[in-house]
Design brief:
The complex is a heterodimer.
Chain A (H helix, E strand, L loop, with lengths): L25 E3 L5 E3 L40 H9 L37 H9 L21 H12 L34 H14 L8 H4 L4 H4 L9 E3 L4 E3 L1 H12 L9 H12 L13 H15 L9 H5 L8 E2 L2 E2 L13 E3 L4 E3 L1 H9 L12 H11 L11 E3 L1
Parallel strand pairs in A: 7-9
Antiparallel strand pairs in A: 1-2, 3-4, 5-6, 7-8
Chain B lengths: L6 E4 L9 E8 L22 E8 L2 E7 L9 E7 L4 E9 L4 E8 L3
Antiparallel strand pairs in B: 1-2, 2-5, 3-4, 3-6, 6-7
The chains are: A mainly alpha, B mainly beta.
């Protein structure tokens, strides 16, 4: 089936029903500084200058730019190496391997640069590659570091000087895990449905109480959906995200709870609130083992899918990255980004969400995962229940069609 | 929180006679932390935490564990057991408020 062209003329407007941390709001401080409202521990930088996933953000990608190194600066390889490893900058090691036991963890998305100096490439060429590699490689996944102002011209000169010092032969590895090309792949955390193994299951069972508890309007979920969540909700979640004509948009379970709970139970169940995530898990667990069956055939679903597919490949943010850079097989997928093994979107990434994250000791729904992915790439996140995210989720979920649901998952 | 005292017990899916098996158990329990006032003095009250875990197998107590500091909320315990005969493994948790919570699992050879 040929892919549909995206049509942005009939996307509904949506006012967010998410918790304050998840709305993508920007606040102006008394001193005029603009800060982003995000979760504690997340960056509060306002990246308003850079384009986002919003459908009404028509700003173009940064224009491809040629540059020559500033005259009068001598590159210092020591400074260059420090910049290469600096986690506040790239870090370049997220994608490229270079020698040194302190290079940990290096990634394998980009080429191994351990012996790049042997190629005798001109300094001007390397400088251009760092400034904006799209001049030579139009489809590269590497950000235009200089053009976007992440490295200054002087810093780029130091980086070039460092790269020119890297000569072979490569020293044998002491630890095969240092090298992302020989590193063992992560094995996961075992059975995600075993409560003695996944704290997410215990968390989801807490929602049984929410299911039965009457809200301010005097009704509980259990009053209308008889027979307990496991029976009443059996198979429901396999069809989500889906286009709901009543709301004129694609919704996942999380979005639907935020509009369905207030008129029935009187509860808010804001998107990304703890109660919303717990209830979503409870509803989804009722479909565990059943194959995902997301509908992409209705005209509305097809239109949403087309927009979601375009979002997946849309270049956004300070770093000019797209989802596809890391999660498409011919690009970053199945390679290491630093120590993180990048998952392949076409293998299906959504059927275990909301998932328990061992690194934060909390259950995250897919939207929070989206927002976490997007913030470090230098763009302002959208509201958790934005139509853009729902349609991107639809695009990802259809890769899971036919595969058994398994909620909650467990991941690092 | 789920109901206090819900115990989950897990055994390997296949066990042969004489195997040393890992028994894993999880109990839902708040394991209340000791609170201090602003001056740093411990607030005097009866705290609710698990103090003792008793394992019995084939009707006999085979082991008892006393908990110390740093046992988390909803604690998870794992231990090994030699499966000599088919029968019941029972793990009992005792807390400071007199609560007694039990989980059982059947060892069957196959």
């Amino acid at each position: 089936m040929a892919a549909d062209a995206p049509d942005y003329s009939r996307v509904p407007r949506w006012s967010s029903r998410a918790i304050p941390e998840a709305r993508g709001d920007i606040r102006t401080e008394p001193d005029g500084r603009r800060v982003a409202v995000r979760y504690p521990g997340w960056s509060t930088t306002d990246y308003g200058k850079f384009r986002t996933y919003a459908y009404d953000d028509w700003r173009p990608e940064p224009t491809v730019s040629r540059a020559i190194a500033p005259a009068g600066i001598t590159g210092d390889p020591t400074k260059g190496r420090a910049l290469f490893l600096n986690r506040q900058k790239g870090p370049c090691t997220g994608c490229h391997l270079v020698p040194g036991d302190d290079v940990w963890p290096a990634g394998s998305v980009g080429p191994d640069l351990s012996t790049i100096g042997d190629r005798k490439l001109p300094d001007a060429y390397l400088y251009q590659q760092l400034w904006d590699p799209r001049v030579v490689f139009p489809l590269t996944v590497m950000p235009p570091w200089g053009l976007q102002g992440i490295f200054t011209p002087e810093e780029l000169v130091h980086l070039v000087a460092y790269l020119q010092t890297l000569h072979g032969p490569a020293t044998p590895e002491k630890d095969p895990n240092r090298n992302p090309f020989t590193r063992a792949r992560p094995v996961g955390f075992g059975d995600n449905l075993d409560p003695t193994n996944n704290p997410g299951v215990v968390r989801a069972e807490d929602a049984e109480a929410l299911w039965k508890e009457r809200g301010p309007a005097g009704k509980a979920c259990a009053d209308c959906h008889a027979g307990g969540a496991a029976t009443a909700m059996r198979g429901v979640a396999t069809k989500y995200p889906r286009h709901l004509p009543a709301w004129g948009r694609v919704m996942a379970i999380e979005d639907f709870l935020s509009v369905h709970a207030p008129p029935t139970t009187g509860r808010t169940l804001a998107v990304e609130s703890a109660d919303n995530v717990s209830l979503t898990m409870l509803v989804k667990m009722a479909s565990n083992g059943l194959p995902v069956a997301v509908d992409t055939s209705s005209p509305e679903a097809r239109a949403a899918l087309a927009r979601g597919r375009v979002s997946f490949g849309r270049r956004v943010g300070e770093r000019n990255h797209a989802c596809a850079d890391c999660h498409a097989v011919d690009q970053g997928a199945n390679k290491f980004l630093g120590g993180r093994f990048l998952a392949d979107a076409s293998g299906g990434l959504t059927r275990h969400f909301p998932t328990w994250r061992t690194s934060v000791n909390d259950a995250w729904d897919l939207r929070r995962r989206f927002q976490w992915c997007m913030t470090p790439l230098g763009m302002n996140m959208l509201a958790a229940d934005a139509v853009e995210y729902a349609e991107l989720e639809l695009y990802l979920a259809q890769f899971d069609n036919g595969k058994p649901m398994s909620v909650p998952g467990i991941r690092h | 929180m789920s109901d206090i005292g819900k115990v989950r017990l897990r055994l390997p899916s296949t066990i042969k006679a004489g195997d040393v098996v890992q028994v894993r158990c999880l109990i839902i329990h708040p394991m209340e932390r000791i609170e201090r006032d602003k001056a740093g003095k411990v607030i005097d009250k009866k705290y609710n935490y698990i103090t003792k875990v008793v394992v019995s197998y084939l009707g006999k107590t085979v082991s008892t564990f006393d908990t110390t500091q740093s046992v988390s909320e909803n604690p998870y315990f794992a231990f090994t057991l030699k499966a000599t005969d088919p029968g019941m493994v029972t793990v009992t948790f005792l807390d400071t408020l007199g609560g007694k919570y039990e989980g059982t699992a059947q060892i069957a050879f196959g």
